[in-house]
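Note to self: the last two entries modelled the partners one at a time, which told us nothing about the interface. This time every component goes in together.
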Amino acid sequence: MKALKALPPRFHTAAAVFLLIAAAGLIGPLAAPAGPGDLLGPSFRPPGADFLLGTDHLGRSVGIQLVHGIRTSLYIGLLAGIAGTVLGVLIGTLAGYRGGLADEILMGLTNIMITVPAIIVLLLLSISLDTRSVTVMGACIGAVSWPWTARAVRSQIASLRQREHVDIARLSGSRTWRIIAVELLPYMMSYIVMAFVIQLYGAILAEAALSLLGLGPSGTASLGVMLHWAIAWESIRGGQWWVFLTPTVFITAITFSLLLVQSSLDTVFNPRLRAGKAAR
Amino acid sequence: MTHRPGRPSRRTVLQTSAALGAAAALAACTGTGGGDARATTLYTAGLQDGAPANFNPLGWTASWPVGNYAVHLYETLFNFNLLTGESEPLLASGIAWDGDTGAVTLHEGTTWHDGKPLTSADVIATFGLADRNEGIAYGDIWSYVDAIEAPDDRTVVFTLNAERPQRLRLMDLLCFTYILPAHVWAEVPDAELTEHPNTEPVGSGPYTLDSYSHQDVTLALHPDYWGAEIHGKPVPQQVVHAIYEGNDAANLSFQNGDIDLSAYFLPRVNELWEERGLPVKTWQSDAPYHLPGSIPMLIINTTTGPLADARVRRALAHAIDYAKIAESAMAGMSDPAQASVILPEGAESVHFNAEAAAAGWSYDPDEAARILEQEVGAAKGDDGIYVLPDGTRLGPFKAATPQGWTDWNAALDIVATTATAAGIDVATEFSDFTEVNDNLGNGAFDMVLWYVSDVAPSSPWSRIRDLIDDRDVPPVGEMAFWNFGRFHHDAVPALLDEAATAADAAAATAAYTQLDDIIRAEAPAIPLMYRPLEFYQFSEKNWTGFPTKDDPYCAPMQGMTGIQILSKIKPAES
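The predicted structure of the combined assembly is written out below.
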């Protein structure tokens, strides 16, 4: 609680924005009068009384697609964020704690994964997979996003394991997993939470980028898919601003608010940035 | 995308916006040199994507203007008129039929760009190239032609195979095969015939290749064009085909008047003159704006599952909102598709039977429900999807088409939505072209939206054959090149042969209507919309006199119109 009070005001604003959007994504689809694929009206009807955010090229409601799209994007973000964070922490911890050959192998793998541009791996994965479901897409993004987390966790663990309480635990015969879970990870929690936030917004952007290229989940509304069709149907040239502006604004709002949340947490938890105290 | 904290995501956003910015910048500065050259240069776009690779008419990747049925460089013997269905003289002045032999006469004075005469020996050598390399597209000529002979240097006699006298197929060939100079192609080794880059093409057409780059292909007027008196003298001194990265940039350029004639898909094209007052026109000023030339077909796999049942397929045909597809997916650039695989306008209209088409399916979910409930005995499940008496659920069926074909994607989205609402579960799947093509050929699909035989001298015969003739079609698992849905009907082969050899148009129409009736009864493929062979919108800012429905001197196309447009347009008065 004390930590929460120490957070700067922008944290609360950003968290409120994100929670509002998330709530729209959770409640919106349930409250919407029709499905995202329903052909409700004429094509490209501007925002008005009938359609709050207008209609798209097929006459589907942009507003209804938006709330479904937010839900899809959040689902992919959460799935990929959790997968990426768990993988990163697992690999980083193992490498950092074990050291030696295990460290060499795992970090070698991590460095290779960092060097290979993840977007290319993602593109190849998306093209080669038969199914384009939302879950598969989330898993793919998670599978390529762990390396930076793993590297950071590994260096932290490598320094933590030198501490005396870890030595004592080891001397008293504790098992490796217990030492990691009880003696090491609690010190890492703040970092893991921040890493998760980064993974979350990274994954939401990755989904948007892939879908924009036309490799998005098929048969589902997502923010990136909305943007893809907005561009494919040339709504920018045609002046149908509501079609491309809506997903753009919401992708920006989600990722920017998450970025603010992360950086606010950083100012509290990162000793080098901690406000009002001498660094180091 | 990398996930380095803070940085990469922003980079992605920047890249995306940079790409859009670059496209806009490209659009702003492409093309149009200023001053005098602009007034005598015709700028076109939309028939060449990506950097020009080669100008080889024998290969499969020739750059504009080779391919696209355009005759700037190479000419064909005849020109197929999309409006009338006639084969008009081009290099040839006519064809005289005597039973199974057709004698083609060449115009007097035909010459190549290098000044050598173009004779009947060149025609024979061109068709003879197919014997030297089996990768050449017209290699199947010997399956319906027995001999090609030249009694003199102006006459070529084609003798048809008496067992399969396919006049229609021969006319396809005479309209769509570029005649090549024997003295040039004799020196190309057999194996290289289809690979030869041919970057200095010697043809017989009114233009020569001036230069090419990743940005454009430039043609210069050939001053000694042999046909100037017979066909007219082309007006533009240069024809430039500008190359764009995508539709957005190209359409923006066209809108700015930098492009005179564009074949890009331009949704809501009518807004350009109705709302913005631009000097832009299409074939006709009201919907559907373009002349239809092909029918994208929803091809259904008739071999397995519930879709093997003709009644289920017919119910599906009643569950598709054709008007919505025309209005939204085609952005109003198509009339709602009728229950016929014959085009109701242009060359095929003589064979179109409006009464029979009206008796076929139409969007009617109640009728779909009636067929499924009363004829098939299916019952609606809790999720709103029908279940057959044997417990099989209707779907989910995958409806596939290549990613990026925007109007096709949108049409399938509408099929999926309206069919699912009517109780047949259809989900779209947009993937890579090659993947869709392979699955289609091997029969590994539920339904695919695909192109089937455009309008041509042999259509609608060729289209109906490609849809439902199962002679020489391998079983599922092997690559088929037509009848992808493996539809079989005992009466089809005889009716097709009857139509091919019919004595007059009325007899052919009678056979076509019977074939169309079979399709209407069994729904192996469902026409979803009409599409022009080429989109055709022009700007009158720099040139006027393009053909329109009010001045229909030729079809609204850059290809298949000989040099009629090039010789009739005039610089706009400034």
